[in-house]
Write a structure and sequence with these properties.
The structure is a single chain. Helix content is 33%, strand content 24%. It has five helices and eleven strands. The strands form three sheets. Strands 1-3-2-8-9-10-11 form a seven-stranded mixed β-sheet, sandwiched between helices. Strands 4-5 form a two-stranded antiparallel ribbon. Strand 4 and strand 5 form a beta hairpin. Helix 2 crosses helix 3. The relative contact order is 0.15.
Length: 209
Amino acid sequence: MDFQALKYIYVPVEQPGATTLLLLHGTGGNEHDLLPIAKEIGSGFNILSLRGNVSENGMPRFFKRLGMGIFDEKDLTFRTHEMVSFLKELAEKEGFDVNKMVALGYSNGANIAGSTLVLYPDFLAGAILYRPMQPFKSIGSDLKNTLNTPVFLSNGTNDPTVNQADTLKYVEILKNAAFAVSNHNLPTGHQLTRNDILLSAEWYKKHFS
């Protein structure tokens, strides 16, 4: 496969064997967007922030879509393999433990993180998914996570882009695959709120501090 490197920012912490927080921005964002949120999640971890390789009318994304809420699943699959391959190479280059990565993704970034959970169920040590959608329309019942990996989801009950019923189905799929899911439905829209950050910081502290 013809994989490309991704643009990134890496901020190491002087702590051997530290966890790495993997930041994945939303549509139109870049590798700088989520850095302020990372600092609110906690400390003592490396920060690795990626920029998506796909451009939609000049807006960076992690994978193509066919329309609002309709993913190009073939491209999503390719881009997920591309990202995981890049992360494995980068871990060697930068000297972090690829087995101790926690993804933090918003919207489009949350969806490629979710795709990683499906295609590589034991790859991530954990995931924070803000405003996620189910990455693939069909996810087989053979999906299994063997590590009881913790996953945090937060959704807005007034979000016009994410169907609440579909989210609940997605949560059940992850739970049935043995991910340790913590799901939060907040009275807001698609934008991130202070509550998202506080809840996810508390979740991170519980599982990784």
